[in-house]
Amino acid sequence: MxxxxxxxxxxxxKRLIIVNxxxxxxxxxGLKWLVIDDNFMNMLPKDxxxxxxxxxxxxxxxxxxxxxxxxxxxxxxxxxxxxFKTVWDLTELLEKSPFVDEVISIxxxxxxxxxxxxxxxxxxxxxxxxxxEAIQDIKKYLDKNPDIKARVIGKSGDFMSLAVRPIDNEVxxxxxxxxxxxxxxxxxxxxxxxxxxxxxxxxPEIIQKDVSSLMGIGIIIMVIMLLANLRNISAVAMVMLIxxxxxxxxxxxxxxxxxxxxIEYFHFTMMNTSMPIVLLTxxxxxxxxxxxxxxxxxxKKGNVNEAVTTSLNALFLPIFLTSxxxxxxxxxxxxxxxxxxxxxxxxxxxxxLWAWILSITILPSIxxxxxxxxxxxxxxxxxxxxxxxxxxxxxIIMVPKRVLTFGAVLVFIVSFGLWKVxxxxxVIKFFKPGNPIRESSEFIDxxxxxxxxLLFKCTGDMKDPHVLxxxxxxxxxxxxxxxxxxxxxxxxxxxxxxxxxxxxxxKYETIPETRGKINNLFTMYSISGDPDxxxxxxxxxxxxxxxxxxxxxxxxxxxxxxxxxxxxxxEKNVTSDLEIKISGMVVFLRDFVDLVVRSSxxxxxxxxxxxxxxxxxxxxxxxxxxxxxxxxxxxxILNFGLMGHFEVHLSHMTALLTSIIIGVGVDFAxxxxxxxxxxxxxxxxxxxxxxxxxxxxxxxILLDVAxxxxxxxxxxxxxxxxxxxxxxxxxxxxxxxxxxxxLLATIVEIFKKHLYxx
Amino acid sequence: xxxxxLIFMSILFQSLFALTGIELAQLVDDRESPKDMKxxxxxxxxxxxxxxxxxxxxxYSKDDNKKQILWFLAPADDKGVAYxxxxxxxxxxxxxxxxxxxxxxxxxxxxxxxxxFMGSDMSYEDMTSRNMxxxxxxxxxxxxxxxxxxxxxxxxxxGIKTEYSKHKSWxxxxxxxxIKEESYDKNGKLLKSKSIIYQQIxxxxxxxxxxxxxxxxxxxxxxxxxNIEVDSGIKDNIFHEKNLKRMPK
Lengths: 758, 249
Description:
The structure holds two protein chains of two kinds. Chain A is an alpha+beta fold. Chain A has helices at residues 2-11, 13-28, 49-61, 81-96, 132-144, 146-152, 171-185, 196-230, 233-261, 274-301, 304-331, 340-360, 362-369, 377-380, 384-398, 400-415, 436-447, 465-479, 490-501, 515-528, 556-573, 585-619, 622-628, 630-645, 652-665, 667-681, 689-707, 720-750, 752-755; strands spanning 67-72, 100-104, 110-115, 118-123, 159-166, 190-194, 452-459, 484-488, 544-551, 579-583. A four-stranded antiparallel β-sheet of chain A has the order 2-5-1-6, with helices on both faces. A four-stranded antiparallel β-sheet of chain A has the order 8-9-7-10, with helices on both faces. Chain A has a two-stranded antiparallel sheet with strand order 3-4. In chain A, strand 3 (110-115) and strand 4 (118-123) form a beta hairpin. Chain B has three helices and 13 strands. Helices cover 12% and strands 49% of the residues of chain B. Chain B is mostly beta strands. The radius of gyration of chain B is 21 Å and the shape is globular. The A-B interface holds A 59-60, 96, 117-123, 126, 463, 501, 512, 514-517, 519-521, 523-524, 526-532, 539-541 and B 47, 49, 51, 53, 72, 77-78, 81, 83, 95, 97, 99-102, 104, 106-112, 115-119, 187, 217. Strand 4 (118-123) of chain A pairs parallel with strand 6 of chain B.
C-alpha cells in the first residue's frame, strides 16, 4: 500500500490532485443542504423525566421561560405619563409579533376589585395617555396588591417590567424580534433584559460572532507560527490547503447526510461550533508532521522524490493510526445524551479521515510538483525550535528517572483534586462579571421578581379547598428560600376573588371552605372577566394547576438543595390528593448536566480503551498499547485534578469539551511510539534510539502545539464556555505533548530493553 | 346594434337598481324579531387541546336581548347560578349574579367589551347588535354558501371603540339572514369565524345553532337552542333579581 501510494505520488501527482479536488468539491457541494440551527432548545434531550414534566407543563400552560424587560431611569419615578404611554405602545407592538404568545405588563393586566357592591374586572391601564389622577389610582391599586406590583414595578419604583412569553421554542427568532421592537422604542430609557428564553436566544449569536472573530485571530497566529518555523510560504500554504479542504468536506458531509437521511442531528448547532477548531488542529497536525518530515529528509537526501518517499514510508502508519484513533474517539460521542453530538462525532470523524487521505495524497503530490530551492534556509538549515527540541530531548533522555519521577509525582499530587471536582452550572455565570447580560440579569433578580422559575405541576381537583390550601402551603415554603422572590398559582386568584366577593374584607382573603363556593367564584369570573386570564394557572378542566415560583438566577446545586427540601416538605405536609411534580428549566438543567457529565466520563473512558486496543493491534504489543494512552491519561488527570484544586466547577460544557479535546491530544504518543519502533528497526542502537526518536518527532509535535496556541484567543471571549474551549484546547495540547516528550519518552528510555525492536 | 343597446340597458338597469351596502345592512336590521323568547341553550366550548366544557342554560330574553335572565342547569357545579342583564341607553348595563353557595347576589361589571362572554368565543360586543350609524357598509361580492345565494357585506367601524377592524358577512339574498361572518382584528388578521343555522318559528327566522371559532386562539364555541318559544308574553318583572334565586315554573 505504502509503495503503491509512493509510486502514484511520484508518477501521477496531477491525477491524484485532480481526483482529490473533485472529491472535495463533491463533499463541499453538501454545504448547500447544511442547516444552521441556532435554537438551543432543539439540542436538549427529551427523554429526561424533568423535561417530560416541563413539556407537559408548557403544552398545557404555555412556555414557562419568559423574557423579562425592565425599563426606566435610575432614581426617577416610573409613575409618569410617558412611561405608561411607552409600556402601552411596547405591549401592543410585542403582542403583534408572530413569536410572542403573551405580554404581561401594566397595560395588559386586569384589576379586580370590589367597588360599592360591584365586582369589577377592568384593565389596570385603561388608556394609552393617562391623567395624573389615573396614574395615582394605578399606584394605589398596586400598593394595595404587592404581589402584582412586584411583577411590573421595580422595588425602587424607578423601573417598569414586562414579561414576554414566547409562542413556542423558537427562542432565537423570538429574542431577535423582541429586541428589535424594544431597542427602537426604548431609546430614552435604561433597559435591562433577562430570562432563560432571552439568554438562550442571544447566546448562539454571541458564540458565532466570538468564535468567528477569535478563531480568525487563532488562524492568523497559526500561520505566523508556521511561517516563523517552516520559513517557506508554499509549505504553510500547503498545510492551510489541507485544513481548508478537510474543513469544507466535513461541513459538506453534514449537509449531504442530512439531505440523504433527513436526520436533524446533522444540523450545525451551537454545540458544533467547536468542530472547525478541532478539525483545524487535527488537520494542521497531519500537515505539519508531513511537511517537517519532508524538510528533514530533503535536507539529508538532497532529493525531493526520495524525501517524499521516505516521509510517506515513515508517516503512513502513524498518521493513519492517529486519524483512526481520533476518529473512533469522536465516534464514541454517539453515546452522548445530546443527540446532536451523534452528528458531531460522525461528521468530524469523516473530516479527520479525509484530512488523513489529503495529507498522504494531495500534499506529497503538490510537493513533488513544486520546484524547491534546495539551498534555501528552510530546506538547508534547521529552525530555532528544531534545534532547541533536539537539545531538550537529549537532556530529558539523559536523566529519565528524574524527569519521570517529577512527572509522576506531579500527576499524583494533582490527582487528589479529582475528589474535589464539583459539578455546578449557573447559566448566568456563563458570562464574565461586568458583562451587560449578566449585570442585567442581576438587576432583574435584585429589583424585580427574578429571571428564573421553578414549576410545580399540581394534579388534583382545583376546586377542592383542601387541594388549594395545600398549594398555598407549598407556595409559602417555596417563598421561604432566600433565592425565591414570589410565587403565583390559581389559589392566589381564588383568595383575591373571595375577598372581592366578600366586599373587600381582608379576613376573607382565604380559600373558601366549600367546593361549591370556589366553583361560584370561577363562574363569576367567567362572566365578568376573561377565563383565559387563568390559562397559565389552571387547565381547562380544573384538573391540573401550576405553581410558578419566581427565583433569582440559581445554580444547579442550589436547585438540588431547594428541590430536595421542597420534596421532603411536600411528602410530610401535603395531606390532600394532590400529586406534585417539580420541574422547569432549572430542574431540567440539573438532571441534564448530571447526565452529560456522566456520559462524558463514559465517553472519555471508552475513548481511552479504544485507543489502547487500536494501538495494541497495530503495534502488535500490549505494552505499546498501554504506553500509547499514558500521556492522555495523565493529561486528563491533570485537567480534572487542577479543576478540583482551583475550584473550577465542572459543567456539562467542560465535561463535553474535555471528551472532545481528547481526540486532539491522542496523536503525539502514537507518533512517538511509531517513530521509536521504526528507528529501532532501522539500525539505530538501543542507546541512541530514544534521542533519535525525540529529534524526529519532537519538532513536529512542538510546532503543532505552538501553531495551535492562537486558540488562546478564545480566552478573551465574553462567554466563559468559549474561554473553556480555548483554555482546554491550549491545555490539552501542552499537557499531551509534554506528557509524550517527558513521561512517555522517559518510560520508553527506562524500559528500552523490553521495548527495543518490539 | 340591438344587442349592444340591450347590454347597455341591462348594465344601466343593474347599476340604477343594485343594492348598496347600507341598504343591505338596513334590510338585515329591519328583519322581524320576536318581542320575547324563551329557550334552552347548550354551550360546548372546545380549547386548542381538544378539551371541552359543556353548559346547559335556561334563557329568557326580551326587547332584542336588552333584557336577559339566565339560569344555569348544568354542569352540576354551576347548577343554581343565575345571571341577569338589563341594558341601558345612557348608563352602564346592570349585571347581577346569584351565587347560591355564598347566598349572595353580586353586581358585576366588565368595562371591557372585548371580554369573552362566559368563557365562550363570543364577546359582549359580539352579543350586542351593531348600531347602523357606527359602520360604513359595502357589498364586496356574491357567493353561494350551503346552496344559498349570498351577498358579501363588509362593515368597517367608523372610529368607535371595538376589537375589530372589519366584518365580512354572508347575507342570503332572499331572506337577508347572515349565515356566515368573518371578523378581523385591528391588524387586519382573521380573528373569528362564525356560521349560523336558522329555523322558522312563526314568522321569524330564529337562530338554532351558532358555531364560533376564534382562529387565533384555536378555541371553538357551539351554541344550540331548543325548546324555543317566541312571543309568549314574558312580563318585565321577570327580569328582577328576586327571580335569580329561583327559576319561574
